[in-house]
Specification:
Radius of gyration: 19 Å
CATH architecture: 3-Layer(aba) Sandwich
Shape: globular
Number of strands: 10
Strand content: 5-15%
Helix content: 40-55%
Order of helices and strands: HHEHHHEHEEEHEHEHHHEEE
CATH topology: Rossmann fold
Bound molecules: thiamine diphosphate, magnesium ion
Distance between the termini: 33 Å
Structural class: alpha/beta
CATH class: Alpha Beta
Amino acid sequence: MDGSSTMASIDALEKADLMGLLNQMLLYRRFEEKAGESYAIGKIGGFCHLHIGQEAVAAGCITPLRKDDYAIGTYREHTQALAKGVSPGAVMAELYGKASGASKGLGGSMHIFGADVGFMGGHGIVGGQLGLALGIGWAIHYRGGDQVCVCFLGDAAVNQGAFHESMNMAAIWNLPVIYAVENNDYGMGTKFSRVSDTDMSQKSASHGVPARVIDGQNVISTYVDFSAIVEEVRQGAGPQFVDVQCYRFKGHSMSDPVSGTYRSKKEVEDKTENADPIRMLADQMMEAGLLSEEDLEAMDVEARDIVRKAEEFAEEAPEPDLKTLYDFVYSEINPNGRLFFDGRTI
Ligand SMILES: Cc1ncc(C[n+]2csc(CCOP(=O)(O)OP(=O)(O)O)c2C)c(N)n1
Ligand SMILES: [Mg+2]
């Protein structure tokens, strides 16, 4: 594939795959809406960054991965954790700060982790995951595996030193790391063009890594294009840089307004009405005779039910014991010199 998005048509996928993508995105939307509600009534504390509007990025980029592949992300990672296989109950319980949470209630919204399914964390420091992704890529290479590591980053992270250091070494060592920029065009309240004198397509150029573009509101394109990239990297193509263009429908975090002074109400309304990844896929499937409004309604009921159960699980889960407060601040090294988390070698 070359640099531009293929805009793959609906015929590129089987009905079962399309249904799967729609199902997932509905679950992510309902999950995040519930997280927002629970935050508003004080059941979730601390920071909380919702992924509403960007569901196609999680579904389209993570579905092509195997369970033993790795994904690592930012603090906007609830749905990516779900996509990689962390259970909705474990993610919700982590948001509630409960001991049954994915990180035992010690991480919260920005630090969901699922070592057993290759989800190597949400990271609160912008760009903090970039060096770790390089290490994961190196570990895959060192052990002679054929996995890939998808490193999600926001558009605000590409001007950081960590981005260039990580990509430079990944390129030198030909490591299987895919740098997927979730390009929603804003870093908090700052538009990308205000903080960068070059276009996104230039950011990887000095490392000899071509930039590819994906329409991240269109889940079919995202899934088809990203699947091709994953396979190329699995075959040894080395690091890739992918500009996944998307849009955030809500505020930067729960404490920010939806539009504010940095983007107009009209811009947000236009995107919400015309570029909703769930509505776009549902409409395409209906036009192709693959889905009815009743099917969509039934799927939605199922998604809401999964989220309700996750919420009940989180409500009923115990608080972490105060004695665990300082646990897992540093990783242990097991006797073989391999990194160790919660009794498991990772
Ligand atoms: C090193 C660092 N600097 C500043 C911050 C504060 N901060 C949190 S999110 C954010 C913007 C990041 O935007 P982007 O990378 O585009 O991701 P998005 O929120 O759009 O998903 C900033 C500056 C931080 N967390 N870490
Ligand atoms: Mg951004």
